[in-house]
# Entry
Amino acid sequence: MNDPLIFARAVHFAATLSVAGAVFFQVFIAGPALRAGADRTALRTTVRLQLACIAWTGLLLCAISGAVWLVIVAQSMSGASLGDLFSRDVLGTVLLQTGFGQDWIARFVLAVLLAGTLFPFLSPQQIKPAWINVVIVSLAAGLAGSLAWAGHAVGAEGIEGIVHPTADVVHLVAAAAWVGTLLPLALLLTATGHDAASAAIALIATVRFSSLGIASVATLLVTGSINTWYLTGSIPALTETDYGHLLLLKIALFLVMVAIAAFNRLRLTPELVHGADSATSADALRRLRRNASLEVAIGAIIIAVVAALGTNPPGFEAIIHAHHSH
# Structure
């Protein structure tokens, strides 16, 4: 994990999912929960500032890590020194004449448009244009999904060249809708529960997050299975290659997150809803905060594993290479 490319990829993935997650959380969870609850001007302001911090920090880290990632890839493609990358316009060539570079240009445009939309989206103004949610969700989904063209899903032909990239795009958007919304949820739960009104908002947010999580997990399972089939295709590719070992670790961590989410859904959320007294509800809310923080930590580890996966040849390629070497 000391490869600079892995570090750049990990930061970029985390930043991208965080930006998209902040947008999804406001549109699908926090916004409806705050509107349904009693007038909580202070809480609304707190949530807006938290989401703004996540979104703007994420965009900044996205830009920095994306630039570092581009430089590393350009240097790897050209074999040039760091100084020659600029003097010989290697970066320009990579940006304009490679699929990776064109994806990076598209992602830069999406990031700029998203930054411009964030100002009115996160403004204190209560009444916002009706179009803004549709536009910003589309931009956030595009920013997350376009990462597919920086991975192993590109380059295939025939039906695989359609199904695999599509599954990867949907997989990344679903990851942003679940993993990317965990940190905002943990922060919102921390800011609520001090009185009955804020506890009611926490309840609505938790129920809405649970519904979004179920849809996201189901999508991740389907698209993850498709990606696993195309990138491994056999048991030996999973059990006998570095790529397969990392993928199995990712799957194991994902299942741990699913188990925590199921416990939250089946045990803690009903206690929050039907708590016989305030102590029961308060305890459920406390454990939900703890579990959300735990899921954030596991999600960060999964992102690091995904970053490493992208620097290893897919399992089926490693198996073919091993057979040829013998």
Remarks:
- DSSP finds twelve helices and no strands in the chain.
- The mean pLDDT is 87.
- The radius of gyration is 21 Å.
